[in-house]
Amino acid sequence: MPNSPSEPARSPSGETRRVVMRRKGPMLVEGPVEVELEDGSVVSSGRFQVALCTCRRSRRYPWCDTSHRDRA
């Protein structure tokens, strides 16, 4: 099964990517990454790690800019 925890997810190039979930914070993803938004547009980052906003409060969505700290 492709989503089985015992089988690591692979990128098209065969590399394993790590995603770190935080309860009260952003989702950390090893880069470089491309993110497809709801409207079908794609944004990308060449950084070694990116923080994706999960609360939608970021002024730079989908990238986290810690705006959630002001309102949490």
Task: Walk me through this protein's architecture.
It contains one helix and five strands; from the N terminus they run E-E-E-E-E-H. It is mainly β. The chain has a three-stranded antiparallel sheet, with no helix packed on it. A two-stranded antiparallel ribbon has the order 3-4. Strand 3 (33-36) and strand 4 form a beta hairpin. The chain is globular, with a radius of gyration of 14 Å. The relative contact order is 0.17. The mean pLDDT is 81.
Describe this protein with a few key phrases.
metal-binding, MitoNEET_CISD, mainly beta, two-stranded antiparallel sheet, iron-sulfur, 72 residues, FeS-contain_CDGSH-typ, globular, 2Fe-2S, 1 helix, three-stranded antiparallel beta sheet, 6% helix
Furnish the topology, listing elements before pairings:
Layout: E1 19-20, E2 27-30, E3 33-36, E4 42-45, E5 49-52, H1 68-71
Antiparallel strand pairs: 1-2, 2-5, 3-4
Low-confidence stretches: none
Shape: globular
Strand content: 25-35%
* Largest sheet entry: 3 strands, antiparallel
Number of strands: 5
Distance between the termini: 38 Å
Question: What number is the mean pLDDT?
Answer: 81
Major β-sheet strand ordering: 1-2-5
Protein name: CDGSH iron-sulfur domain-containing protein
Organism: Streptomyces cellulosae
Keywords: 2Fe-2S, Iron, Iron-sulfur, Metal-binding
InterPro entries: FeS-contain_CDGSH-typ, MitoNEET_CISD
The gist of it:
The protein has 1 helix and 5 strands; from the N terminus they run βββββα. The protein is mainly β and 72 residues long. It has a 3-stranded antiparallel sheet with strand order 1-2-5, with no helix packed on it. Strands 3-4 form a two-stranded antiparallel ribbon.
